[in-house]
Amino acid sequence: MSSYQYRHYPYRRPPELDGKGKRRQVVIVGAGLAGPTLALALAARGVASVLLDEDDTVSNGSRSICQAKHSLEIWDRFGIARRMVDKGITWEQGEVYLQDRPIYHFNLAPEPGHKFPAFVNLQQYYVEEYLFDRCLEEKLIDLRFCNKVVGIRPGPESVSLDIETPDGRYALEAEWLVACDGVRSAVRHLLDLPFPGEVFHDQFLIADIRFTSELPKERRFWFYPPFHPTNSVLLHRQADNVLRVDFQLGRDADPEEEKKPENVDRRLRQMFGPDATWEHEWTSVYTFTCRMMERFAEGRVIFAGDAAHVVSPFGARGGNAAVADVDNLAWKLARVLAGSSPASLLDSYCSERRAAARENILNSTRSTDFITPKFPASRAFRDATLALARDFPFARTLVNSGRLSVPTVQPGSPLDTPDGDSDWLRGPAPGSAMVDAPVVNGAGGFLVDHVGQEFTLMSFAPRAADLPGLPEGVAGLMVARGSAAPAGWTALHDRDGLLRQRYDGRAGTAYLIRPDRYVAARWRRPDARELATALRRATGHG
What we know:
Elements: E1 24-29, H1 34-43, E2 49-53, E3 66-68, H2 69-76, H3 81-87, E4 89-91, E5 93-98, E6 101-107, E7 119-121, H4 124-137, E8 141-145, E9 148-154, E10 159-165, E11 168-179, H5 186-190, E12 197-211, E13 219-223, E14 232-238, E15 242-250, H6 255-258, H7 261-272, E16 278-292, E17 297-298, E18 301-303, E19 309-310, H8 318-338, H9 345-371, H10 376-389, H11 393-396, E20 438-440, E21 444-446, E22 455-459, E23 474-479, E24 489-494, H12 498-503, E25 510-513, E26 519-523, H13 528-538
């Protein structure tokens, strides 16, 4: 029984089947988390796209459930993040147990003053539904269900696709093709591209159950609990009174036996006791891999999300990384299509997001190695760490039940301007994501509300006369109490002092922030030449 009612979206006959097709700027394959997010981000910049999906409904099962703060900030630009927060379960705290005793408590958002929480637990089918609803409202997005890519012919100036539909096969031509079609990417297979990586053979049972007893709100992780004494268990609460219970089974378990309802119920009864009641929502036994393509672009075909890289599920890095991929790609692809930047700007998508994928794979692999040690020595280290963690703070830092998703750092990006001021002390560095803070602009709000689809220069100049000149195409944010902002600038009041604190905002300090809300450059007192040089570099011109 499922608490979620799956909608089947209507198939519409493509115009190409009647000879009315035309070359498209962007075709996106795959309507999971990444594809619709990319289509919406492009549409916000005036770029039309065709979004293809071989199915006619959202994903089966809850799948990616931990929607991170940085993903919510991206979706907020399309007006759907609040809907996700209202439906989902907000959580910021977690607890780690050894057997039946808590040994470690953590808080993912220890500081106040952010628009969104660290995480919202919301089943992927809801997230996809909200994305689909928003895409179907957007005139620049042609969302086509039951359209399966069965052939690809790359060329130097475009990509041709063969697409199978209920009405037959048609051809579609695109200037750029973006593959967001998941770990089993049809696009990647049709192009016969390698997907190297490591296979992890441990097996895990997911049991999503609708629970009618009192539900815990925080994340809980057990090592060797009495109800599953040989391995580990993870517990997450979701919307609709659904619990996800994740049992580590080991390599030798029989997946078909483990999925049988009576065997799942036996494990759950041992965990929750004789009086608990539940209904089954979704059950799956899985193993996982960590893989990454050697290049995220092949000519005019670009890969994003699980089609380009896949990590272990520990840390909620898969879906959130996919959303970050397309947020990085959208503004660059829009500039290339508009002729505002050279096509070489897209090389930075590959370098930055490959670096992010490496960081995510490293962190998720370390979590995997701690949760599923491969050798007797590593298991002895893990068990000793757990035994010490309750009483010794140093051991708690070594406990790794999943380093949870945060924005990755992009060190050494060719788009970033290195620091030049010798007295720079604090604040997000070039290659780091901007940090939110509460601000006032006539009414309450947050910094993320004022960083738009293009570049933004945020200045802490105390007076309008002290502001640097704005380069063309850059919006200005003036952080000053009671000062009127000149043309092109928006005045912000630092409501609680957190903005100055987080950005080391001494008088004259300025930050150049990219459209994907990453810092491109920062200065104590920039001049016009420094600003122009940094902008050229950040847009792929230098």
